[in-house]
Specification:
- This protein is mainly beta.
- It has a domain at about 1-20 and about 50-80.
- It is about 10% helix and about 45% strand.
- A six-stranded antiparallel β-sheet has the order 4-3-2-1-5-6.
Length: about 90
């Protein structure tokens, strides 16, 4: 199922176990200062499955940003028809 979604670059909804900031956040690497606005935490977001391993998945967001998530943080992935839930 995951391989099929990856090959077709299916638009998926990813549901996290806990809300997390998933927006692009600017970082000042010279001073290592946190950004002024960290973004809003989200529990669900959309994207395309780019790569997956037993440890994590790589999602391409609609903005083009790449997001790598530990499998332990994912509650479910769905294409609207089929739902894959993690243990």
């Amino acid at each position: 199922m995951l391989e099929g979604w990856r090959k077709k670059l299916t638009n998926l909804q990813i549901e996290l176990k806990r809300p997390r900031v998933i927006d692009v956040v600017p970082v000042d690497f010279l001073r290592d200062d946190p950004p002024e606005r960290p973004g809003e935490p989200a529990q669900k977001f959309r994207g395309q499955l780019v790569f997956f391993t037993k440890d994590d998945v790589t999602i391409r967001r609609p903005s083009g940003a790449i997001f790598v998530i530990d499998n332990d943080e994912i509650a479910a992935i769905s294409d609207g028809k089929t739902r894959f839930e993690t243990q």
